[in-house]
Amino acid sequence: MIKSEICELLGIKYPIFQGGMAWIADSRLAAAVSEGGGLGIIAAGNAPGSYVREQIYIAKAQTQKPIGVNIMLLSPYADEVANVVIEEGVQVVTTGAGNPSKYMEAWKQAGIHVIPVVASVALAKLMTRLGASALIAEGGESGGHVGELTTMVLVPQICDATELPVLAAGGIADGRGFAAARMLGACGVQMGTRFLSARECTIHPTYKEKILKATDLCTMVTGKRLGHPVRSLRTQFARDYSKAEYGGMPDEELEALGTGALRLAVQEGDTKKGCFLSGQIAAMVKKEQPAAEILSEVMEEAEQALGEAAGWIG
Questions:
Q1: At what angle do helices 49-62 and 27-35 cross, to 10 degrees?
Q2: d(CA 162, CA 178)
Q3: Which helix (H) or strand (E) holds 6?
Q4: CB contact at 8 A, 197 and 165
Q5: Rounded distance between C-alpha atoms, residue 31 and residue 7, angstroms
Q6: What's the chain's average pLDDT?
Q7: Confidence (pTM)
């Protein structure tokens, strides 16, 4: 079995995190991933603290294994959720879409392992100085909020910039991607889009069907003009948003156009007004299967790939 310091640090079997996908990564999916041996993560997204607290309760009733919460720092409820994770004794917090510096000392004092998602060397160095437990280096191939650098370029630079354990994210869907991440210096991976196909993932059937039928050129990035680029499937909404973005629509109207779009995709499968977040690896997701099966399959493939790589050296 592949050994990793992140497993020892968090008490998990496999060095695989499930991404904190807003309105997607709920208690059911997180508990299933944790029970399967990875780290399941509840996504706070733009939800209020009361929703996050409820999801934590439900997840804890389903598993005794470690559970994480992802806090999207652009959320108007970020301060509220930052306190909820302390009050509920959450073991791990991951963060995205921003800099979590102002919360880190309180989280650390509460015994929480803080593992920020970083998309640049500068942020990785800052998080290291502030006492993060590990880092997630996420390339622009991922779904949702994305940075400029690709995973292949970003991960080794982050690994060189810190002594903390680093997980790779973005463009990873199977054991080959896991093995590649290990070669780049990562101690594990975070996968989001792959878990959209999990049986325990409760997204609308239309959303899941679109992922399972995706092609290699199925995604696009919108939102760069507002400074918060997002990768999603090429739906009617994404194309309309792109036209508005570069067609002179005022910023406030453009912001309003995207408000609630993800929730419409997740809960209603609305292809005209919904934003279907997805990473570039969607075309590699071929079937629905239990989360535990996804985890074990990825690890088996990774061990085989790494074994074959070792055989190249005579």
A1: 30
A2: 20
A3: helix 5-10
A4: no
A5: 17
A6: 93
A7: 0.93
